[in-house]
């Protein structure tokens, strides 16, 4: 590491001070930019998308964050003036940023420069972080109504679920997923939050209510695989853009 590179303990201390000072709301954007040093592992999400993508900070000068232009930025097309979410996590803290794309550089290694509009710090109250998912499930409501759904994320404690049914917050639903051609896993979850989409779909946050050893093993395997893929993606981006990876992400 170079002398200018912040160590993890320094970054954690800066974030903790900002959180303690403001309660995590509307923190100093300049200080956040300074924390987001070259080589930082971040995740980005375009508004209207449910997927968080691994990305890489290339530069944090001129009050902007320059990050890699990744393949998923073209679906849907990101252009200057569009807003994008960014997330940087360290220990139990999540730095959440709303940014606008100030400019894009069309080059052999394309980049986009982000201007932070707002930054908040959350103390992660979830039992675990969520990871992208993308598979179908079957469900049955407390009124015995059957429905089809789609998992958008998954953690050790619950899932993000999208379906067309209007489910009651606090209710229990039975979920079935297929882990092989002939093997199905059934489990129950509670609806803990809901959000209505403009296309007549509902997005729910759920929490598992009967974690069997079999379900725990399936989820652990899935999450470990996702974590490994994220690290590989980060390392590949560092290699592509000739950035030295940080020894903590």
General description of the model:
By secondary structure, the chain is of the alpha+beta class. It has two domains: 8-125, Roll (Pnp Oxidase, Chain A); 131-225, Thrombin, subunit H. Helices cover 20% and strands 41% of the residues. It contains three helices and twelve strands; from the N terminus they run ααββββββββββββα. It has helices at 8-22, 29-35, 213-240; strands at residues 41-46, 53-59, 65-68, 83-90, 93-105, 111-123, 131-140, 146-154, 158-163, 172-178, 184-196, 202-208. The strands form two sheets. It has a six-stranded antiparallel beta barrel. The longest helix has 28 residues, at 213-240. The model has no long low-confidence stretch (mean pLDDT 88). This is Type IV pilus assembly PilZ.
Distance between the termini: 14 Å
Uncertain residue ranges: none
> What does the main sheet amount to?
6 strands, antiparallel, barrel
Q: Can you list the strand order of the major beta sheet?
A: 1-2-3-6-5-4
Task: Provide the structure class.
Answer: alpha+beta
Which outline best applies? globular
Number of structural units classed as domains? 2
Which value, in Å, is the CA radius of gyration? 20 Å
Number of distinct helices: 3
Provide the succession of SSEs: HHEEEEEEEEEEEEH
CATH fold annotation of the largest domain: Pnp Oxidase, Chain A
CATH C-level category of the largest domain: Mainly Beta
According to CATH, the homologous superfamily of the largest domain is Electron Transport, Fmn-binding Protein, Chain A
């Amino acid at each position: 590491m170079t002398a200018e590179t912040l160590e993890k303990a320094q970054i954690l201390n800066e974030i903790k001070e900002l959180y303690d000072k403001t309660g995590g709301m509307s923190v100093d954007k300049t200080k956040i930019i300074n924390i987001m040093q070259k080589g930082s592992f971040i995740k980005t999400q375009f508004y209207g998308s449910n997927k968080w993508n691994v990305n890489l900070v290339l530069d944090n000068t001129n009050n902007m964050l320059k990050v890699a232009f990744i393949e998923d930025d073209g679906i849907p097309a990101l252009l200057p003036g569009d807003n994008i979410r960014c997330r940087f996590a360290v220990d139990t803290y999540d730095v959440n940023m709303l940014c606008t794309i100030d400019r894009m550089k069309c080059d052999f290694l394309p980049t986009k420069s982000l201007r932070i509009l707002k930054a908040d710090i959350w103390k992660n109250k979830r039992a675990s972080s969520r990871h992208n998912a993308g598979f179908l499930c079957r469900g049955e409501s407390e009124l015995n109504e059957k429905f089809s759904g789609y998992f958008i994320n998954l953690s050790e404690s619950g899932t993000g679920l999208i379906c067309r049914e209007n489910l009651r917050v606090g209710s229990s639903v039975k979920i079935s997923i297929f882990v092989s051609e002939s093997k199905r896993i059934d489990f129950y979850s509670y609806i803990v939050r809901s959000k209505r989409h403009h296309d007549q779909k509902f997005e729910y946050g759920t929490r598992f209510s009967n974690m069997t050893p079999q379900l725990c093993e399936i989820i652990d395997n899935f999450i470990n695989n996702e974590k490994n893929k994220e690290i590989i993606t980060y390392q590949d981006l560092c290699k592509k853009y000739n950035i030295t990876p940080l020894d903590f992400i």
